[in-house]
Design a protein that fits this description.
The structure is a homodimer. By secondary structure, chain A is mostly helical. Chain A is about 70% helix and about 0% strand. The first copy, chain A, binds a DNA duplex through α3.
DNA sequence: GGAATTGGAGAACGTTCGTTTCCAAATATG
DNA sequence: CATATTTGGAAACGAACGTTCTCCAATTCC
């Protein structure tokens, strides 16, 4: 597989990832069903023909956008966590990452994972599996960071890492819901400041 | 306004609240957009004519179902809280009320408030106002119960009642999201058992 | 009893949806 | 240059949507 060779035929005139980034915005703030192909076409700057040559159907566009969203967000989150000095600081940075996303414009735009859980997960196995994996991943990450903190002495050993990780996950997902109707920045941060007390 | 006098014309042959209870189930598990009038007709046992004589349009059905949902749930919640022996016990009962609803069948069915926040609140002022009021009410209730516990000695006075109430609200809303993809009963209760530790 | 009003049932409405089709443009291969 | 293959663009498709209309039965008011 030579990366420089191009497949035959007219080359694609747009970047898939750029188009998906636009689709993410539409799907996030409108939801799956309310986001019409017309809206997606306009936002992505594509015609129906191009869209359906790049993606099988509407659900394929959505799932591709979901995967792109997860990829981008995970990269940002990992970068943020990497800057933490110990386990406790890393947990705090992870909480802050969600609080930052849960207010203002991005708060109103919403989280694609939460939206998928609410709108699609019950009746769509592919969507449910993606949501489940995302939640499990976040919970496992919280769990790992808490144990790391307990090992380096920044988090008390008396707490149950697993149960506390699940609580942190609940808090972050809840913040995403509350962010839809716009609690301000201070209120979101007051929540995570309270949650962090569980690590004492 | 005499309650015994009937308006002229043929009387309605179904109970509005019974029909709304069926609509609540459909709207909860399908969401607003995915719930078609056909589905609602079948679930409510009505024809299109009857439906549109009782409600202006689809959104009116939804808002009526939302209001009915809130009324029923609030009554159940108040009953549960009323059985609490002190502030701390009341907070625990309120958390348990949400944990109970966030797993199994009712967990998969989902919360109409959360669904409305995700699907409609951003673009619909009426929906947003209802969601906002519901969240504010829950937060105020947590706040009141925490202060009550601080007054009766069952909750430590060192915590910030307002901030802790907001955290509890985030936890409950988060549980509702997680319940969509089905964490089991034990996991939901482990979360509230952890949250309750903040009251020590 | 007759007029007026409402509910129930189902057909029919126009619109919008997601999707497909068709043709010209662009590029690879031989 | 010729051919195969793919994309871009616009029009067109059938299906499903929310809603309205029509007709008749049921009920109340006068």
């Amino acid at each position: 597989m030579d990366a420089t060779t191009r497949p035959p035929g007219r080359p694609r005139q747009f970047e898939i990832d750029d188009a998906l980034d636009k689709a993410i915005v539409v799907f996030s703030e409108r939801g799956y069903y309310a986001a019409s192909i017309s809206e997606l076409k306009e936002a992505m700057g594509l015609t129906a023909g191009s869209l359906y040559k790049a993606f099988k159907d509407k659900k394929a566009i959505f799932l591709a956008a979901f995967d792109r969203y997860k990829q981008v967000r995970n990269a940002l989150l990992n970068q943020e966590i990497g800057a933490g000095c110990d386990g406790r600081d890393k947990v705090f940075r992870m909480l802050r990452f969600y609080a930052e996303a849960s207010h203002g414009e991005s708060g109103r735009r919403g989280c694609l994972v939460v939206g998928t859980a609410i709108e699609l997960a019950v009746y769509d196995a592919e969507a449910a599996e993606r949501v489940g994996r995302s939640m499990a991943r976040s919970e496992a990450l919280f769990d790992r960071l808490i144990r790391e903190g307990q090992a380096d002495g920044s988090i008390t050993k008396t707490i149950d890492a697993g149960a506390t990780a699940r609580l942190m996950l609940s808090v972050t997902q809840g913040l995403r819901v509350l962010g839809k109707t716009g609690p301000d920045r201070d209120r979101a941060f007051a929540v995570i400041d309270t949650a962090i007390k569980l690590l004492d």
